[in-house]
Amino acid sequence: MTDNELMQLSQQLGAALKAQGATVTTAESCTGGWVAKVITDIAGSSAWFERGFVTYSNEAKEQLIGVDGATLAAHGAVSEPVVRQMAQGALNAAAASYAVSVSGIAGPDGGSADKPVGTVWFGFADNQGRVEAQLQRFDGNRDSVRRQATAFALQTLWQHFIQKT
């Protein structure tokens, strides 16, 4: 996905959030704030973007958004239970309408047989009690994996949460 396509997606997301009077927050690990960056590239995004948490370390996940250390120890940062807790924790901490979380292995190192490079988990939560998680596997180098993860996070938030509200 090109920068222009990411911008168009962010504009679409922002227009829908603004129309609802809703806000979004992010909790990001492997994308390092890229989802928040793309969102805040849109002029006027302060009307619908609450805040972003870059929780790259496990300690940051625990301290900033309340991910349980036992969950991290049992499942690892790149897992369904962790991204669910990340999304819910960010939603609560920001008092936002929606949250998206991202945790993955962008590479080139860090992969394993169970979790190869390109493995990315996403969490989505809303203030109506919905919390969902999705696993994706992306190909390419570090930049490509992170770009694809950013696009997937925005598209899925739009299609499965914002648009259906």
UniProtKB/TrEMBL annotation:
Pfam families: CinA. Residues 8-159 form the CinA C-terminal domain. Its EC number is 3.5.1.42. It is an enzyme of class 3 (hydrolase). Coiled coil: none annotated. Keywords: Hydrolase. GO terms for molecular function: nicotinamide-nucleotide amidase activity. NCBIfam families: PncC_domain, PRK03661.1. This is Nicotinamide-nucleotide amidase. It comes from Cronobacter muytjensii. The gene is pncC.
